[in-house]
Amino acid sequence: MAKEQTPRTPQEYEMLTGGGAEAAEQSRQGLSRRQLLRRVVAVTAGLVGAEAVGGALVMIYPGLTSGFGGKITLKKKSAYPAAIPAEFDIENGKGVFYEFEAKSYIVHLAAETPWLLSGGALSDLIDSEWLVKDSDGTYWAAIYQRCVHLGCKFNFLTSCRSFKCPCHGSHYNDDGEYLSGPAPRSNDRFLLSFSGDTLVVDTGKLNSSVQHPSATTRLLQELPVQFACQ
Ligand code: FES
Questions:
Q1: H helices, E strands: number in the chain
Q2: What whole-number distance in Å separates Cα of residue 184 and Cα of residue 15?
Q3: Helix intervals (H) in 61-152
């Protein structure tokens, strides 16, 4: 009497015979080589088609995108307490916060922030740098974590109340404006908005046109010497 064959998974077959996945799949399903090839081609075509349809939908309806590259809903505003720049502290959650999913630092500047400009000049610059004024007089920004020099992820250093890139030392103020180093401009920022009292960062909309500030185009003071980064 013929011995009944025990069905094996492709992985088991591979271990027992030292064969490849293709042979294992043939063995498990009793397929001819041609049948197997047809199935592989059909599955591959299906995957490529699904990817193309998905890509087209995202282009037509960008709002469908979620995750990095689309709109990301973060926490409620109350999870991000505001602070003046000299009191920013990422470890204790004051003024600056890291959001992994949005690859961003959320900056929340207190209403008492001492700006260098005032009136229309201040509001124009705030608009052009994509800071968002809230109804309580505080200001928000979503600073992209990618250094505009060569793309390293920079950090917020509470010891020097500023952003510093570990690769070549580019240094940025609390609002992402350039301070020193080889970076060609200030940091890039994403579009930030509110949905009720919840933060939304649109990682598909990036402002990469904030230039090096000058004395007349700087929002915040350069850092006092006690905050010099080592
Ligand atoms: S990549 Fe940041 S300073 Fe060079």
A1: 4, 11
A2: 55
A3: 119-128
Query: pLDDT digits over 115-156, tens only?
Result: 999 999 999 999 999 999 999 999 999 999 999 999 999 999
Neighbour count for residue 169 (Cβ, 10 Å): 14
Distance 152 CA to ligand 1 centre (A): 6
- Nearest 5°: the CA angle 98, 100, 79 is 50
Pocket mutation for ligand 1, best pick of 148, 164, 170 (most atoms within 8 Å of C-beta): 170
- Do 161 and 86 form a contact (C-beta atoms < 8 A)? yes
Domains (range + CATH), the chain: 10-65 (no CATH), 71-227 (2.102.10.10)
Q: What's the predicted TM-score (pTM) here?
A: 0.72
User: Residue 88 C-alpha to ligand 1 middle, in angstroms?
Assistant: 22
